[in-house]
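In response to reviewer comment 3 from the previous cycle, which asked for concrete evidence that the modeling workflow produces usable outputs, we include below a single protein chain processed end to end. The sequence was submitted unchanged, and the resulting structure tokens are shown without manual editing.
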Amino acid sequence: MPRILIINIEHPPVGGGAGYASQTIAYGLSRNYHYQFDIITMGMPNLPKIQTINSKIKIYRLNCWRTHQYSSQPWQQCIFLIKAFFLGLKLMKKKHYAFCHAHFIVPCGFLAYVFHHIKNLKYIISTHGSDVPGYNPKKFKMLHFLLKPWEKRIIKKSQLLLAPSNYLKSLIQTNILNYPVKIIPSGVRDVNQSQVKKEKIILTAGRLVKHKGIDYLIKAFIKLRNPNWRLVIIGDGPEKKALQKIATGQSNISFTGWLDRKSIKYQKYFNQAAIFALPSSSESQGLVYFEAMSTRCAIVALKNGASLEFLNQIGVLVEPENIIQRLTNVLKKLVRKPKIRKKFSNLARQSYEQNFTHSLILEKYAKIYSHIIKP
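The workflow returned the following structure tokens.
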């Protein structure tokens, strides 16, 4: 039974979409395609340091003094690199790995690159967004500039480079290296509960950071002046206090804090919400959009990046200029016209079933893993 080494600074309940993506791959392939996995990741207090799942997955959580579930700092990632290096060497003395699947070009791809040189271990890389220059221009700009020569080396030595969207592929080829990139979106489990009745809820979810545009959404919602509808905001992050200040005095706006994707509460909100809105200025894919597709939400997003790729024709895309007024107009239309909501709800669900189900994505990864393992 082939054993794969996964290296990722995120793994649920720590981190965001990247952690969920690698978890979904490992759990699904271990159950349906007879792979075994060792996962090296960051830990947090109250999480087990070593955890075994279904006898085929072992998770090693390293203490890197990470303080937030939603993000880690470069210095914490450096500590992770050192600790993961020594743990990886220890594991490779005891076990044989078919290859390594690193998530993020840096830092995890760098570790895979080192293991390749020391132990001749093949590796593939999944990119997620923040590891690619230009994805979030205001963040890590100098770091990407300094690391660019290493990013090129890491990519060239990999067996395969993966991206969840053509948008991210374009950024990689423009800003790092014109290198072949295979597109596989991250799938999400179908948590649709058709028996749950849709309520007058506009939902948003994600890290509460500036580029997610949740401040625009709150201001647009306030301009609706419709007390019958609620805005529910799932997530945590550095912008939380500023967002709560904008929402002061609005009894129909609520913040749930950070919720685990697998939790009943998280899934309940998605199934109850009639509209899902996330006016993010930069998404490499946006797993929350796919969760909204699965749970029959009418989806509102900005007309940019991966949203153009995945939501065009099945969601309402808003031009970024004069964003608050445009968002207000779109939400007003969806709130007042249930037939239009229903139309986009059905389109979203159909797109999910045809393109992004858990089984469809797993099948693609199974083919890739099989190809990499072959001599």
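The chain has a mean pLDDT of 95. We consider this sufficient to address the reviewer's concern, and the full set will be provided in the supplementary archive.
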